[in-house]
Amino acid sequence: MRKKTIALLIISILLLTSSKFNLSAGEPFLYPAVVSTVHGDKWGYINDGGTFSIEPKYDFIREFNQRGIAIAAYGEQEYGLCKVFLINKSGETVSGPFSAYMPEFRNGMAILTTDQNGSVAVNENGEEVLQSNYRLCEYSDGMFSFYDSKTEKYGFVDIAGKVAVSADYTSVGNFDAGTAIVETDSGVYSVIDRRGKVVKNLKYYDRYNSSEGLTSFYEPQTGLYGYKRTDGTISLRPAYISAQPFSSGCAIVGLAGKDGVSFGLIDRYGKYVMKPEFSGIVYLEQGMYAAAKQEYPYFPLAYSLKALFNSKGEQLTDYRFYNITLFEDGHAVANDNASTFFIDREGNTDKSLPELRGIGNIKRMGNLLQVSLDGGLQYLKPDGESVWKKDDSTPLGNGITVKRVTCRKDHLTLIHYPQLSGLADMAAENKINQKLRDEFTSDYLNRKPEAEDFAQDISIDFSAAINKNLLIIEKYGYFYPLGAAHGTPSREYFHIDSGTGVFYQLKDLFLPRGKYASKLTSMVREQLVLDNRCSALSGESGYFTTDAEVLEEPDFLLGSDAIKIYYQPYEIASYAFGFPEFEIPYGRLSDIINTGGALWNSFDKVIVRHKVKVQQDIEKSDVKTLEGLIASYETGIVDAINQNSFKIVEACLLKGSSLYNSQKNLVSDLYNKNTGEKLINYEIYSIERDYVSGIYRIFVNEEIAVKYSGKNYVNRKYSWCYTAVPQKDGSLKLDSIAKW
Q1: Are strands 128-132 and 135-140 parallel, antiparallel or unpaired?
Q2: Which range is the signal sequence, renumbered to this chain (predicted)?
Q3: What angle do CA 219, 291, 328 make, to 5 degrees?
Q4: What pTM value is reported for the model?
Q5: Does domain 393-504 have CATH number 3.30.565.40?
Q6: H/E element holding 289?
Q7: CATH topology for 620-739?
Q8: What is the DSSP string of 63-118?
């Protein structure tokens, strides 16, 4: 028996060491690192020496786990659908690819939500352990919580994917030591076991506000909060206008004051550990707190200077930190007005570790320090020696490179501006760089410090691209007056001739007497009317006006096939609209474009007369699929009517849907009435997506020639909105139709 056991152990070890799933013991630590390319940032992994061990080719990556497995992905957006892989430290694919949202490892599992709303669970070795048609949520203690879209409830499946607790709950917590807390429709919380049997009911509980056996509650008569035990008895009577969950035996509470809310720290008996005299308190773990004075009570806490306090309520430092991270192993990372450094539990700067210019975070990782300051990334040895730093230069093409220059004035003002190199004409290069630097920085760097109560957070950045000889620099920013409900974004484009250094204006695109402003105004107003019709059908709010004007020098962007006219927030629509955009294809402006002008000839273009308006965040592949679906439907429905063959168009439609049934009847009805049709033309005006349901809306304008029995063809125009529903096989089917 002993020999058999040893033999099995040896076999297991051999399998592990020879497999792609081997553990990472003894393997080198690898660190996420990024390079800038003409196609965007690409991520890979470097070793302790700062050399890439896995070449930078991914769009998004996660850190390696303790088993030597990392998650990497290709995609347009980190939080959108991606092509996801699990890789080992040799860069080999262990699992995948999956068409899914990019996950993280939690409690030993990575749960991938797929493009078909199912899930795949992968363990820390990168092994696929479960595929489920349900949307798995969390894993713990051998159980997965899941969401049933049919019942809109939550339940649990076991590690084999078998439903252990049916989806009967409006919310569920994680299993721990064989039990979990669940919530029913009526708001009752219960503790259940792995079979769903109720162990006990909790008379008072809230999954967001319960901790350490206490839950805050609101008393309508007084408008104040107190705390109850899970058996429903009162632990602390209502006395506070806000009451946060307990952590390590203490809770942060708020009291009404003449200048707003004053915050303090209480123990489980309601005794003040820190008196209610602060504009905010943050728990930093390990018995440490940061608190801000009441000087500017309406400022968000992140913008207020804070002091460090211990669990006894003793103040350890002056008010000199704008931010302090959570304590870990007796240290935290802090920021002052313009630098980042380590502090100990007494609030002293740790001089044995680097103190760096810039605002951000320093993270211990492997044998190095990962430094993320002012949008940059680098790795240092603990003594401050640089191992690797991201190159802030990006090749644009034509031998031209743009460098991202960082300018940090103080904790409120961060500016990144472009610096170009590699232009053929050095004088033009210097001219461009000086003007760009002034455009990005002059309004902010030379400005006198604002009074604290009028301060604002200012961040400015850019993107750059080149089309033939036309450089396009996008300047974008965000301006947040401290204490306001939200800030204001800004956007501006610079169109620059890389040969001459000329900064073009929109008028340079048109003939001198082309009256381009009035023509663009008319075309923008056409779209405003159509957009408002789309919004009315979608249930969205429309624009403030349909009489928007295009000025002689409007905000604009020259694309490869159209001019984009855009407006700043609040100009013609609510803040939620962002920057309303209207694209005018060059093919509709051919009579007024100066085709012999320097601007027109500085970039490559495609002449089209129509562009589909696509809602942001819809992937190009989905747009292509939808365009193909509509094309098949438009030709198919006409052929189906003329041939009395519903099968011709049936594949485009969701079986059993309202559109399926109505078109099936329409085909036979029109054929029996001897009615014929010809498709003259159709255009997709816009494509939208409802991100809650996943359903697409396609707004189409159609022109159909209709021939009634015994009569000639008559052209008819229609505006239809079709909805398309994603299917489990990845296809899309049309399921409804409405006039718009």
Answers
A1: unpaired
A2: 1-24
A3: 110
A4: 0.85
A5: yes
A6: strand 288-292
A7: Nuclear Transport Factor 2; Chain: A, (3.10.450)
A8: ---TTS-EEEEE-S-TTSEEEEEEE-TTS-EEEEEEEEE---EETTEEEEEBTTS-
